[in-house]
Protein 1
Amino acid sequence: MKYAFFPGCVSKGACPELYQSVMQVYPKIGIDLEEMTTAACTGAGVLQEKDPRLGDVINARTFALAEQQNLPIMTICSTCQGVMSQANHRMTTDGEYLAEINQILGEEGLAYRGTTNIRHFIWILLEDVGEDVLRRAITQPLTGLRAAPFYGCYLQRPTEALQFDQHPDRPKALERVIEILGAEVVDFPGKSRCCGFPILTINEKNSLNMVATHTMNAKSHGADIMVTPCPLCHLNLDGMQAKAGNQQNTAIDLPILHLPQLLGLAMDMDPKSLGFNRNFVSPHSTLQKLATVVSS
Amino acid sequence: MNTTLRIRRFNPEQKTPAPFFQEYNLELEASDSVLDGLIKVRETLDDSLALRCSCRGAICGSCGMRINGHAALACKTKIISATKDSQTIHVEPMNNMPVIKDLITDMSPFWEKIRQIQPWLQPSTPIPEAEHVAPAEAMNHLSGVMTCIMCGVCVSDCTVLEVDSKFVGPAALAKAYRFVADPRDDATTRRLTALNEPGGMWDCTRCMECIQVCPKGVGPMDRIMSLRAKGIDEQLPSTTGSRHAEVFTDIIKNKGILDEPMLAVRTFGFRNVRRLIGMIPIAIQSFRHKKIAPSGPLHRAIPGIDQIKRLFKRASVENHTFRNK
């Protein structure tokens, strides 16, 4: 199974540990990646604020490039996935609109036929790799680890563009993967709410309130760690957690793991090779807990 | 089918009022609505249950409540869909507004915010003898937003209102768009200027909860994004939000990939010393945790950037023509 790999800006920028960890784990689950080096940022919903059609043109170019490669696209970011899914939904459900977009692409010798399948890594794990292959790749089940899922808005809404009706496992994909890896799912109300990242520069107080609410809530439900398939959520929940704690006069100290980092742990990979040293909130306590369980 | 309604109750007249859950077991048809179930509870099991409802046909907007964790109209939610995962349906009052009793919330804060955006036509032309007539084709684009029934469902699940009650909220912003985009209204600049303030259109996180839960397809967040685009077009005084959108677009146009540090610095502005100093601890942490690539914090333009630049130019021209149609 080969995919046109769309890493997204953040895995190439402020979250290099995401790129690093996905590169470590993907060869172990029987998939192959060809990185899309010429594909532009999806716009992350921000470009779309200024000009929605412009965002769709840029994403249609990416989809057309994948069509030329004859490969489905794999994303590793909830926001990239959501923005692309929405753009694709608009274009594939409205032929007239697609024709307008293609008119702009046409002058560059490009055309999007509407056939590109765009999927997040977590969906690929369940829908293509499958539970059996995934289980076989696990050499150190995460027994005893209590993991809280945090999706990122764009991997949960709007459900129509994300094709939840056709894929009923998608709404709870993260819980399913956590279970397969042998960890215990810590359910809490904030798992599909907003991390606050989009308004970090605009209204820092509100943004940090969201970070504090969700991390403290997960912790009060007994979570050892939180895991997210969205690097933008990671930037806020991990990177701004200390400041969010200060705003609440408390230390939160909840390690936030990228999904491939959690996968790598279950594959008994060296934490450093998964970029754990790059996480702001030290996952040291998590690793210690796992080591204790394994040795006992 | 055998169904359990687990209802969050609250009685302010109790000695020490506190919310609690109460379960009711009853037989319902798969095609019944959750509202049918609640009415059956009230009529056959417990007449103390308080709820608000009227039309039973998703027109009046009275029966907004949270069903299995998400706000919805009880009359529009079928038992078969609400029992997809479990035969127990969790029913709670709407969020982000005070509870009066059981499932009845106080809508005063909701109406206050609707009034705040001045939801009436403000033309500069003399008052006509009859209606302010507009050609149908000039109003068609508003048909979606005009279907809002003011049920409060989007406000209930708004993630910003959860942490900041001063945010004007999705319903009021969608209503503001309805007047800003009305060809007969001449208060556009004044309206957008008011929405450009803190607590206005730039405070939305784009979480899409409102789009997902709206029972009438109003798409409040999409309207908020249209307000932002109109604000930028109107060249209102720049805010952190509008600069963020402008700088983001400029970086993608010129590099195809986002430079996060540059986005933050240019959004705050080189003269905004306080915000720039505030970034220093994060910058130090990023260096300490080796988040910065060996080549430095800024990216080179991606291969194919010339094509992306041309597409930006072409799409912007096309879009300008489209908007002015």
Protein 2
Amino acid sequence: MTASPEHAHDSFVRRHVGTDPDTQRHMLEVLGYESLDEMLTAAVPHTILLDTEGQGGAGSAASIVPEGITEPAALAELRALADRNTVRRSLIGLGYHGTHTPAVIQRNVLENPAWYTAYTPYQPEISQGRLEALLTFQTMICDLTGMDVSNASTLDEATSAAEALMLARRTAKRNGNVFLVDADTLPATKAVLKGRADGLGIELREVDFATEGAPEGEYFGALIQYPGASGRVWDPRDVISEVKSTKAVAIVSADLLALTMLASPGTLGADVTVGTSQRFGIPLGFGGPHAGFVAVRKGLERQLPGRLVGVSVDAEGNPAYRLSLQTREQHIRREKATSAITTAQVLLAVMAAMYAVYHGPEGLTRIGRTVADRTAALADLLRRSGFELVRESFFDTLEVRATGVAADLSASLRDAGYLVHTGGDDIVHLSLDETITPADLEAISAAFAPHAPNPGQELQDADSGSGWDGLVREDPFLQHPVFSSFRSETAMMRYLRRLADRDFALDRGMIPLGSCTMKLNSATEMAGITWAGFNALHPFAPARTSRATSR
Amino acid sequence: MSAELLYSKDHEWVRVESDGVAVIGVTDYAAEQLGDVVYVDLPEVDDEITAGTEMGEIESTKSVSDLFSPLSGTVLEINDAVVDTPELVNSSPFEEGWLLKARFEQLPDDLLSAEDYKAFTES
């Protein structure tokens, strides 16, 4: 263990294990051992020591674990892996969308140890900065969804949906064993719901709510995707009120960016809204983690899973933040806890909240409208080119009927640098996002042209909103001053610094509470998460394009 | 503690108000054991409750306990005041801190007198 290269000057081990060879030698002398191996062999029961010699005895770690390498070598290996992934712009959508992480947020939050080395904010006196940021996240979610209380946060949208399923089960105990799932639900959400329902003995029943409405019969909850995974924008008011009339819980899984333009689930009557904040500045990251959320109407807050930040007062009567209800989950309710979820995506929730702080209501609305208008412009061009759209009411997602040529279209788009989803031989499914520029629209249109019945059409400006009757958002959101105070980079940087200064994380000293979230993420380990080779991959990108990540 | 009341071994009290109608609450002994009560989860009006089975939850700053129904019957009324102000369970367990009113056919045989309940809690 004392041989190089582990103890080479800039080896990873040397930089991250506190003792140097001299100290180790001294400690071994005091303990009466010649080497670390000898000490381990004496200390660890033989039955659990790795048998590398086939002798039933102890083997040396070096014979099983590869030799240590230096940090520069580790970075080079990571870089080579990232380069083996092929990153194309994703138009796949289905719950994962391209987004711009503002540089001020990437540098001052994601890459700042004051934010990424902090422990769970159980000690409010050393966590006021993060707690304020998380309260901002909750405010953003409540405003956009029209719900009364939101948690902060869950692992992703699918996990949020599974937690909402369990919430419905607890709330509507007398409504039997069936949970209704919108046929137009995102595939990842369907998969996680199935896993959870199987484990709990719940029967999932798929219903195409938009065309069939709410069915007869007994059920304890229903999940409606809004807008649908297919892109469909439709009015779920009647379905929601039907579901609630049976005392079942009406859950809406909503797209936050769409909610800048469309009526909120709260105004449509939902009991619960779930979703993800991914497209608010969180990179695709091959599917996660992203900060999801569960938000509820008044009366269900005690059923809310995960963490919840509340406003209290400190010993001197000044406003102060602290975790509410969540500590009760772990420390008081224990085996009667509403959920086993104790995991939150604090860093990513903070990033999403700061994305909303930086853009503000008018900025988010502009992004939402631009995405919708560009989608409308593309739809208009495709129609004039002779393609038929499966649905005429959409926000950012189109399904194009391309009988027999879906694969060819997909290939043309891939050659132009874009990935789309195909439904069989006849449907091309594509979603636009805030990263799609007019030049991208031209390139996408050009890729469609060779397969079009009437090629040669020009893109024209178009207005979104077709088919949104009664669904146009009218109520304001993000009216709190925090969402209109930090528009310049300097102001934003100073705000983030001010918040970070109120926290005590590993960047200042040891945190006297520790467990799974004692976060010593080394700078070398963190480097790769901002590289496109890893973070710009869509989870449904073709396997051959993500070879290195999947290895 | 009051002599006119009946008690269950799950620490609920029962006061028969009129023919077939009883008020239910938790005893001062239970309230003291629980500590500061912060949340009471009760069944809904018209719900059926069954003697000895869970009918709700009572949560204090240090624990959560199931509420077991002391009798079988139908919920007639719940005490909204105790839902809004759960600390009434501590400050006035036998009066303002009552939980619900229920209609019953017949009281279970195993309810205790004040004297027997006192002996039970001291044993």
Protein 3
Amino acid sequence: MIEHAHPPSTGMPDPVALLPGLVRGLGATGSAPHWQPGIASNCRHVELFASARDAAGAGLALAFARDFLRQEQVAETPDRRPFLWVQDKAALRLSGRPYLPGLPAQLRHRLIHVAAATPEDALFALEEGLRCRDLAFVIGELAGNPRALDFTASRRLSLAAEKHEVPLWLVRLDARRDLGAARMRWEVAAAPSPRSRWNPHAPGTSTWRADLFRAHTFHPGQWNLRDDGALLGAEPAFPQSDPAPDHGDLVHGTGDRSLAAG
Amino acid sequence: MAIWCTELAIDRWRQVEGLSRGEGALGDGPDAVPLALIEDTAHGPRIAAANRAARAAGTAPPMRLADARTLCPTLVVHPADPAGDLAFLESLALWAQRWGPWSALDPPDGLLVDVTGVAHLFGGERALIADALDLLARRGLSARAALAPTAGSAWALARHGPAAAIQPPEADPRSFLAGLPVAALRLDPDVILLLRRLGLKRLGDLDGLARENLARRFRNTRSAAANPLLRLDQLFGLRPEPLLPVIGVPAPLVQRRLMEPIRHRPLLDQVVADLAQDMARLLEGLGQGARRLELGLWKVDGEVLLRRLEMAAATRDPAHVCRLFATRLDDLDAGFGIELVRLRASWTEPLLLAQADLDAAAERHGTSLAACMDRLTVRLGAQAVRRPVPHASHLPERAQRWQPPLADPPSLQEELHFHHRPLKILDNPEAVAVIYETPDGLPRRFRWRGEVHEIARAEGPERIAPEWWRERSTVRLRDYYRIEDQSGRRYWLYRHGMIGDGRGGAPEWFIQGLFA
């Protein structure tokens, strides 16, 4: 009740301090901010629902992680902490394993990969990774809706991530939107890339269509996200109903400038 | 060194009866008359062992008792004790470690002792074998022994060679052992019978045969006892033969001798508490916990009191042990006093050192990277937790290798960033059906995992040739294409081969990587 009397007006409310159910789903308070890249979200457990037929989920998770590391980096000292990438067997079979030459150059030599045989083992590895103070972040990839990943397990991951302040991006491949404790949940798909600068017939910078459908502290929304190496660019996406056949051309017209920024 | 106790069962029976060898051989002692040890089988009693007089009368071990009685009506029988014989052989194997660092059982009546490099301690091989035979004879065991470079040849020489045979290491084993019968190969009886029917009676006969012929005839490669070829290889040392060594486990024991015999309970409790402390320290050093404890109390008047304790789980907590013993000491009669107290753990189990603080600290401050990797590796296995390292190869699947997470990365030249590489790579490239404009041109659409992808943009080909220095000359080259389909999904496809390259038919297409 006290929270109602004093709605958070300035800055980010601590999501842990909020009563559960108070700010939920479609932003119960009118002052819930809109998400944008680089915003401090205080959210350590993010779920990304993606298809197993492409690497959009893992790609966006890495882009979010780099965005997070850019905010974290205060001094000039380079961050050399490793990060953990956990895959269960089904995810490994469906969408392949990380490939060193294709990883972003800053993260390439910091990867520790865990190939878990079962979802239970993968959850164990995720939780152990979140408890480790020497890891920069943790990325998990789980296929489908395994029985082991119920609300309790999801809540355990959330609590471990918040307690030790190690962020977790959990990619759910071909999964239903089941019950989960993640503070932000995204639906990710690949989007047509902007036209490449040197070869108009070649695929350009990776672009994802990201749909934030549930968040504790933000308004839901849709964006086209793109990581061009220096920062994570976002532009509001068209609604699904809007027929936009020449999507790629439109993106080409805007150039590298972020629509959201302008 | 192989030791064969030729008459183990009879020798043991003699020892149990307290007789010396051949006692009353001329007179009327129990060993002078024909005697046999029998065992019960499904077909009635059978003779397990017979003494010299009985063998002279015509009875021999696999014979039935009824048959033996017809040959020798005065035969005296006693039950055999195979379990006791085996236990005796085990203790004998431990005792035989006086000649070498470890020994192995060779049931039912043999021992193998590893005497590699110890012969000079006894003054040479001949002295060593003489010492062994002498000591065994003094224990009342009739035995044969042999020294050889391999366990198989020592076994063969002990049973079928001359007495106290020694195979010198420089001798050619094939010619040295050629005169031994095929039974010296430690084969099953039916295999020996088969070899004898084939006319192969000596090891030299087997040596003259072509190896393939033996391999074709004896196809059982799992059991060495059924395959003469495996046994021959073991005999000549061409094939390893693992042996299971016998290890003596002494029971941890602590004791207190008391200057004054004690008669009162509080003093005894103090002594038991001290003993429990000592035992805990001893067990901790061994990494063991006690399951069963025996407390022996020696009284001044020569009596011994024993109290036994058995725990549900291995423990070495002194307070716990004292509490359990306290109730068992209530009915003790100290008499004139107790002068020696001894605590012995007759059954122990491994019990690791526990550290209670580690988890609590990890709960508060998080674990270190090494601890985290240890936990992951212990549960998931070393093959599951790895980090990729670059490898100098231009083939995409060979360009990364995996090594343990905390190992140092290999020093490597900085890689060149000419080409786009996918974020993820499939362990095995999956075949896709591709429709293309021209056989050598860009693909138009492809079907993968039951779905058709219309290709909107493509870049390629990036031609990657096989590594001719390590692959066959018929391996085809690959043309890689970066693909983006109409909904923006990005893939890495390759065409395996070219039309008319003379290395197979029409080229196939595969998907190998997924771009972010």
Protein 4
Amino acid sequence: MNMNSITEITTTPIKKKYKKKSRFGEIWKRMKKNRIAMLGLAIFSVIVLCTVFADMIVPYSVALEQNIGDRLQPPSAAHWFGTDAYGRDIFARVIHGTRNSLVMGIGAVVVGISLGGVFGAAAGYYGGIVDTLIMRVMDTIMCIPFMLLALAIVAALGPGLVNVLIALMLSMVPYYTRVIRSAILTVTGQDFIEAAKACGTPDRYIILKHILPNAIGPVIVQATMSVGTMIIWAAAMSFLGMGIQPPTPEWGSMLSEGKDYMLSSPHLVIFPGMAIVLTALSINLLGDGLRDALDPRLKD
Amino acid sequence: MMNEKLLVVKDLSVIYKTDEAIVHAVNKINFDIGRKETIGLVGETGAGKTTTALAIMQLLPERTGRITEGEILFKGENLLKKSKNEMRMIRGERMSMIFQDPMTSLNPIVTVGDQIRESLDIHNHDKKNKIELEARVDELLKLVGIQPRRKSEYPHQFSGGMKQRVVIAMALACNPELLIADEPTTALDVTIQAQVLALMAELKEQLGTSMIMITHDLGVVAQTCDKVAIMYAGEIVEQGTARDIFEGEKHHPYTLGLFGSIPDLEVETRRLNPIDGLMPDPTDLPPGCKFHPRCKSCMEICKHKQPEPHSFGNHIIVCHLYAKEV
Amino acid sequence: MEPLIKTIDLKKYFKVNGGLLHAVDGVNIEIKKGRTLGVVGESGCGKSTLGRLVIRLLEATSGEVLFEGNDILKCNRQEMKKIRPKMQIIFQDPFSSLNPRMSVFELIAEPLVMNHVYKSRREMTEKILSLMDTVGLAERFVNTYPHEMDGGRRQRVGIARALALSPKFIVCDEPVSALDVSIQAQILNLLMDLQEEMKLTYMFITHDLSVVKHISNEIAVMYLGQCIERAESTELFKNPMHPYTKALLSAIPVPRLTGNQNKKIIRGEVSDPINPKPGCRFASRCDYCKDHCLGQDIPLKDQGNEHFVACRIYQ
């Protein structure tokens, strides 16, 4: 027990002493000890700040302004990251592309996990006919190649940011259902689930309080890994003309536009590429640290 | 006299070193085993029984476990001075080990017969051919009471007791002189335990193997051992013949506590007399006698001075209580 | 005195590959208020399944479980919710029966919160601290997590959870078999003290005969899903009747130099509980097996002074 709580005993009635520490505070305390996770958090914070304050860093108009005379300029004082084939400032496009790419990447994963979580949890916890039904439907969807499925959905809904997002997350659902179901199956067999049933805990609490927190570890890692993949998939959709329509800046489409000039002007792909790598990496580090921080067993 | 001892352990200390702390798992223990003798190492979780066994076999986890001092003399040769290759030839051939859980010590995808033959293959100095080896496998299976025709079956087709018999057959494959059995019957049911213990006793008679029996069950010890060493927090606190331990007058307070904790089938008691408190944290052992915080007869001296061993013939008790009597 | 809990022809079959696994096959037991019934048997005899059936953690295939005279197997969800707090269970493995992500406080609070016992958090905290005191856990452990404690303390948390709702009946499923001997004795003493103080009724499931003798008033011996002998504890140890019970008692290694000789060791191992043939299930290992042991199930029969045995020798 540390000094703080000792002084607390003397000043407050005994019951207060054992007031539950806030969950968040405890997780944060554990997280702070993990330097690499904190590095991830720092990078990710910078990226998020770039999204929020994009217009203050560089006006949106700069990202769209074409200047054929200045095309394919290497990085310089005027254009920090150089210019692209239409003479647009790559720095401005990377900064303003952050929002679209982040929304795509994180949005698809978050919604994918939420839906997959519901299906996976139901399948894993109840088993039997519910399990068979859900899993066979998911298996059927998984048989369709990911890209084909996403393209089919966009084709039906029409191109655009929101529709690409829907396509990506729907395509992710079967994948996460499977991951979460297996994570849940390993937890469901343990005695403490039965112990919870014995003291009258309703099913929904058992899933929320006992199963999900213990099953979430591998899911978080999987999720952070796929944020990067999602950004790339979104880019591929844009490349095929199904995603975000030019000239809206987006890292993926910048990559595909730049690939023709990759040998002569590598900065066209290096900077958006680095943006994707940094984002994926920071989220990955953060996720790794988060998984550890969520687990009280790894406290010290 | 010394030459008759098969194994002598002298002042053996083992530590486990992890990032956070050094665990003193075994502290300066001494014991020996004669030919055809069985010694029981008794103690609770964390007493250092298994560590002692692993140290003798030189199977301590390489990255963390280290023997810091002492000697392990096997037929007069110090095992700690042997190279890895020499040790590998000794293991399995001259000494072998039976682990606690028969379910996990067999490879599930190799037939039982092949698993037994594997250790024969490795130590095949006489260049026996395949037929001779197979004959030996059959012989071993018969020895442990399994029909030889079952050798082409896989471990999952055997029950727990049968698996432990297979494990024993593997351990005995090369006629070792020393057998270390680490809780060989803990995972088994009582009636099966009785079968396995009877089998082990019979084989010991037949083959003349010496044995170290590691267990927490004083009943098993009474049934199988000639000598007993009681371990607590990495030390042997009392050792002697089975008669000394089970029928002797003088005991270490921990030994008394252990006996008091077992419900006796023949005596009617309403309450047990357990030892208070818990095993000490091995990274932070108490000063003086390791047992003093839980000891009912703790004296002032126990709190700061490590007790000396006091011997009454072969019966050794490490406790201040017996200081004046010697 | 009316029994607090009574089972009538209780059966539980599990569907497995290859047929029906008869885990519990027609068991009749009763436990009087404030007493302890020890259920003994080897692994796979269905004793843990029986423990879960009587508090309806598992749904029985057929039969009745009478708790204070009411068949709880016929209760609906709402009625069950009222009865549930009166029957609790203590698990074998204190390492897997506590959620590793919950602190001691949260663990003991769970039954209280889920059954809306207290309105204010202050009252609940008081109750939790007093429960911890009852089971001998120091207050300073209130914010620790299970992995930071040793087996004995974890088991104390498990006991505190079971006591939280002031139950009348507790199923103890091998509560001490995962613990060291010295800790085992501490927990056994605690359980016996609690029984005296709170007038608890126990069903004590174990494979350890010396433990069961110590704690039980009455003992039921199970073999392959059936209860084959039932008697007062002292009577059973003095005068075991069924050949299996005799073998079981003889197999215990006693911590004494004399008495381990001339053990009666039974041959073979427990046979398959899947689609068992009618007749005595111990027959294949029994030295006294005759033709009439097979073909027909053998009922428990009173041999006088409440000593029941299911064996042809005594019928």
